Amino acid sequence: MIGLSYDIHRLRRGGPLYIGSEELKVGWGAVAHSDGDVLLHSLIDATLGALGYLGDIGTLFPDTSLKWRGARSTELLRIIREKFSVSYEKVLLSLTVPDILYDELSNRLGDIAKGLWGLLEYPNLTLVLARSLGFKELEPESLAIQAISLVELRTPGKKALNTEINTEILGVFSLSDLKLISEDLGVKAELSYHYYPYEDLNSSERYPFIKDSLESLVKGFKGRAVDLTLIAQTPKLSPHREKLIKELASLNPELRLSLKFRSNEKQGVVGRGEGFALFCVLY
User: Fold this and answer.
1) 56 contacts 22 by C-beta, under 8 angstroms
2) What digits encode the pLDDT tens for the residues 182-224?
């Protein structure tokens, strides 16, 4: 069972900043309802995708509930793992930060990786740090921190193999890097990223365009399961979740489908509402 997910949080002055359960006092914090731990949020969503759960972190822990205000992401992860009896086989986490955080996180990367390794009970784990994603740019007037997670869950009853922990520091993290590192980890899946520009579509035409694009993509998938993360600033997609998943699943009944929604915090072309993007893992 394999899942792939993406998360992003804008930064604000003040703190602390939580990264992979570590507390960093760097003068910046994440804008979030909970603690804004972008690594653990993307990890939780990737886990839900691997499980085939028809929802995401916002479905289980809504930002409209005071119960989860300021909640530590380690607690959210614990709830998910207990609820679904989750064990990790392989984990790839990438973290993309602006220059103001890059040196500090470069120095702390080993500690963050060791903390995550123990927290996740010692899977094969790779943690990557980069300055910018090849997929989309960060707006200079609005600093943000991004994460991509790829997980492979351990089959119940299967014993853990000899595991290891690795860290990598890159200038730019691209889809090619994601594919190469996942191959090194031994994750057997097809990873892809798609961008669909809205061009001259008005607001009422955008959801039908998204739906048609997804239908065309899903019809062509050949595999057992697919986990999709759809990133769009506009239109608001959560009201369409159940109907959309049901319609997509009917197009390819042999395929187990998981679909998650994300905004892009007003960052890049997606955040400006010029189109939508899609991360896919098919296996």
Assistant:
1) no
2) 999 999 999 999 999 999 999 999 999 999 999 999 999 999 9
Closest CA to 135 of 99, 178, 167: 178
Edge-to-edge strand ranges of the sheet holding 28-30: 28-30, 2-13, 144-153, 88-96, 124-130, 165-169
- CA distance linking residue 38 with residue 144, whole number of Å: 10
Phi, psi of 130 (to 5 degrees): -140, 165
Assess contact for 241 and 257: CB atoms under 8 A: no
**CATH superfamily entry for domain 2-282:** 2-C-methyl-D-erythritol 2,4-cyclodiphosphate synthase (3.30.1330.50)
- Cα distance between residue 226 and residue 280, in whole Å: 7
Tokens representing residue 89 in the block: 């086989």
Residue 196 to residue 216: CA distance in whole angstroms = 13
Write the pLDDT tens digit of every residue in 170-185: 988 888 999 999 999 9
Of the listed ranges 18-22, 53-57, 246-250, the least confidently predicted one is 53-57
Q: Quick one: CA dihedral 60, 206, 136, 183, positive or negative?
A: positive
Q: Which of 34, 41, 32 is nearest to 7 (CA)?
A: 41
H helical segments located in the chain: 38-51, 57-60, 73-84, 99-119, 175-185, 203-220, 241-251, 268-271
Residue 282, token pair as written in the block: 């098919």
**Pairing verdict, β 225-231 and 256-262:** parallel
How many other C-beta atoms can be found within 10 angstroms of the C-beta atom of residue 204?
A: 8
E strands, 131-169, are 132-133, 144-153, 165-169
What CA–CA distance (Å, rounded) separates 19 from 41? 10
Q: What percent of the chain has pLDDT over 90?
A: 69
Task: Estimate to the nearest angstrom the gap between the alpha carbon of 243 and the chain centroid.
Answer: 23
